[in-house]
Amino acid sequence: GWEARSELGYRTEDILRYTVAxxxxxxxxxxxxxxxxxxxxxxxxxxxxGLSGYxxxxxxxxxxxxxxxxxxxxxxxxxxxxxARADAARATKVAPDAPEGWALLGELEGRLGDAAAAERAFAxxxxxxxxxxxxxxxxxxxxxxxxxxxxxxxxYARAVELDPTLALCWERLVVTRQAx
Length: 180
What we know:
The protein has about 180 residues and is an all-alpha fold. The chain is about 75% helix and about 0% strand. The chain is built from 10 helices and no strands. It has helices at about 10-20, 30-50, 50-60, 65-75, 80-95, 100-110, 115-130, 135-145, 150-160, 165-180. Helix 2 (about 30-50) packs across helix 3 (about 50-60), helix 5 runs antiparallel to helix 6 (about 100-110) and helix 8 (about 135-145) runs antiparallel to helix 9 (about 150-160). The longest helix is centred in the first third of the chain and has 18 residues, at about 30-50.
């Protein structure tokens, strides 16, 4: 079960903090291999335990944006899109400069039918990470769905400029340009 200390003696809170502070373990870090193993088993336990694992992790680190985003996804999978949106929104408040939180919030707002809120969230994600093709594709899809084909075409074009392998973007780019 979930315990204050892991099997290797590390406190769960320390493992989570370490990953938030330094997600890429330095090759010369003597604790790196053990912490990577701990993190792997921690993530596996959270996956097996579902929402309660995220709840316990958030009890230890209530404002950890990665854990909030993880619980948002778990809530969505469990059929709670409103709870998922609440977690994603909280993640953007505690880490306003993390584009992943804004992109997730945009996805959830779109699923809940608020295209304007989805577009605002995707716009913020793109301000923070303008080089991510997926962000342009997500905002283009939202714009496309609400009928703003000219703006959608611009976003699809930027997405394929960044990643020419996005076949769906190429297809939607052609369709949206024809609709303008």
